[in-house]
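Bumping with the actual sequence this time:
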Amino acid sequence: MTAPGRRSSTFTRLLRHGFTDASAAERLLESDQLAPIRADPVLLEALGKTADPDLALLGLVRLVEAQGSHTAERELLDTLVAAKPLRDRLLGVLGASAALADHLARHPGDWQELVTYEPQDLHPGVAEFERGLAEAKDPVSLRVAYRRCLLSIAARDVCGTTDLAQTAAELADLATATLRAALAIAGDAAPGDAALCRLAVVAMGKCGGHELNYVSDVDVIFVGEAVDGADEGKAIQAATRLAAHMMRICSETTVEGSIWPVDANLRPEGRNGPLVRTLSSHLAYYQRWAKTWEFQALLKARPVAGDIELGAEYVATLAPLVWHAAERENFVADVQKMRRRVVENIPVAEVDRELKLGPGGLRDVEFAVQLLQLVHGRADSSLRSGTTLDALKALAAGGYVGRADAVQLDDSYRFLRLMEHRIQLYRLRRTHLVPEDSADLRRIGRSLGLRVDPVVELKREWKRHRAVVRRLHEKLFYRPLLDAVAQLATGEARLSADAARERLVALGYADPAAALRHLEALASGVSRKAAIQRTLLPVLLGWFADSAEPDAGLLNFRKVSDALGKTPWYLRLLRDEGAAAENLARVLSAGRLAPDLLMRAPEAVALLGDGDGGGLEPRARAHLEQEVLAAVRRADGGEQAVTAARGVRRRELFRTAAADIVASYGTEETPVVADQGALVDQVGGAVSDLTAVTLAGTLRAVVRDGWGDTLPTRFAVIAMGRFGGHELGYGSDADVLFVHEPREGVDEHEASRAASAVVSEMRRLLQVSSADPPLLIDADLRPEGKSGPLVRSLKSYEAYYRRWSLVWESQALLRAEFVAGDEDLGRRFIELVDPLRYPAEGLGEDAVREIRRLKARMESERMPRGADPTLHTKLGRGGLSDVEWTVQLFQLQHGWDEPGLRTTRTREALAAACAAELVSGEDAAILDEAWVLATRVRNAVMLVRGRAGDTFPSDGRELAAVGRYLGYGPGHVGDMLDDYRRTTRRARAVVDELFYGA
């Protein structure tokens, strides 16, 4: 007897053999059921080798109790001690699966299935499983027979007799035999239906791919035909009844539980389509309606039950369509979009535990392999395997995937699938979530051979393999493109030139030959630059392919690399700063404007990082003005000073454009900015501030160069139009008025000549041909328009506005804002025009009619010939002009008594009108949405084409690039245009009511 307070030697041995509840285990060992073998050392040793010794011991006691007779108990225990294969198999299953332990307790004779250890028993196929299910004549007996067969599969698995691939294949073979048995039961129940039709069951998904899990939906497609002489309609109805009954036999819960759900949702039209179709109906659907993912799913199609000949005919008929799917427009983008959608639909709380669908999960490997199969399988039949690991091996053998990458991916995929198997085997429940409970994690870790600290080791290995998959799954597609143009080690297979071109075409490259030349130039050689670029390019190629202009992205990257490749900080930036490389890829492939700005001074690429370059956050106007004025002071002469100011403008335009592109496209670390209005405001504010400080610097340079420190007349620049409204786009001119006031004692004519000279020189210097984009000054909104003087004195403005001012000029002055020069003079000019733009008591009826008449005339006369009025962003229906004139009418009528309306900014004025209840919240939102969208389109056109435009591009690639900027994926240009028309049509209805009073 053990002394009080001391542990028994059995207790200590139990702990040493891996039991966690040694006290409970000791009591079970002392039970009468185990008395005959309690002292046998092989029992404790065998239990200690299981995944969960406590669970295995409990299951064994329950199994012995269930035997029902002393003779049966002795037979079980004697065999357990004498036969090591049985001992390892039985205890291994009991320690890994509570569900199979329950089955054995209900059917205590089934342990005999684990006794035989013949060669044919080690690797059973469909025929062996069919024999095992042969006695099943109803759903309940089928479940019992199925579990009995599953017991032997699990035993071989947990003992290591079979590896992952063999286990998955056996599970698929058992599923095949089960489907056949279920269909036979359904046929026996309705012999009349069976006689009318031919019904083929085609396995899809993991069952079709011969790589099934322990518990998974078994995906199928049904094909039916009438037997000779039968009516087709009645035959298909009969086949449908048989198929539905077969599905219920497998899926419904009975006293013995269920087997697994049979899922037919991969069929044409999904759950909305007929359950059974004829072969010709299937073919017609796939030829006309099928989406890319449906051809991807057909990679795993395999006839398994019913009329095998009909099933084989189905697979053979559709195969040509499958292997031409890669030729479909936006093929790669569609596949990758589907993968992203899967990840996005995972609940946030489960993403980090999702073994199958999460980042770095099983689906990443499967999608990558299937993508490569579809691209190259047309020309290489060796790749046409439905089994992921076999396909990966074939891809590596053919040089389509790097051998080292394939080995790593194979290893990680096997580990993750084994984890999945062990998780599902415990309760035989369909799940892909890694449990959080430490006992569950310990059992899984031990089952995978991790015995020192199973929980810690399991988490570490899982994290490592997931990281490998995340790193490799996209690179898998792009890395061999570099190997195709690089020097490889002897014996290493390479992607052929034809295969490389084929892959580039699938990615959306219009000129794959040129792309290969760029890759060769970038990746060849033994320099540090080439080595770093070889590392970066697989990822960059993927980002380029995500744009509408992958060719331009790669070409631009080569140009930047040629310019900066020998600069240490450039390579360090791309290698070490995570965001920089992706930001660069987005910017280089989003259109012409941003790359053009970057090529003029490639060192601006530093802005794309997270370091000292200031990043992509817009700089405050005060800081910009300080920098520009300091550069002007340091310069020798006016031209050099203005060149410096324009250089700052070019750099900051690039910063603004890059920030806009990155926010619109989104990156792996930063999602797409949801508030489109905020993006518009940011671009408009940044470009307007930049224009203001450029004018301020140019004015300072011109005055200093011609008159020293003091000009004979005070001088101010007044912003007008979009400039005054802080709404400039990338391609906007600067609308301005110039005002001066002679200094004391200076002759008016002399002052006027000096002011005119300043204006002329400013305009000249800002348009001098150079590496920097010109800034065009437009003063056409001045009194008398193009016929009037470019610059007037404050008194002259006062006299003109008092005597000659027209209502359109009052409207134009709503945007007037001082931006450069003499601040006091600018303030007095604004005070002068305030009564004009915010007239006391508002506008009279005649003035309102005149504004409406002007607007109607502008719509009819200024719309370009041949332009689509539904797509013209400025003058079209519901476009910028419609919204702005409506808002400005509110300002002219009510600005005198509503302070919120006294702003130069359209969106602010619209919000103020809504707050003053001049417009409903719903109507204000409609107008705001249309204005923001039209502005975004104009910005997109400039970014894509490199020149301003007020309508959507006619070129297909440029139109797709505009769509990508606006958030529309490949193939959705039509949706973009429809959405634009819908949004502006609603806005025009509001304008007709509020502006025209219709």
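The tokens above came from a reply further down the thread. The first helix runs from residue 9 to 16.
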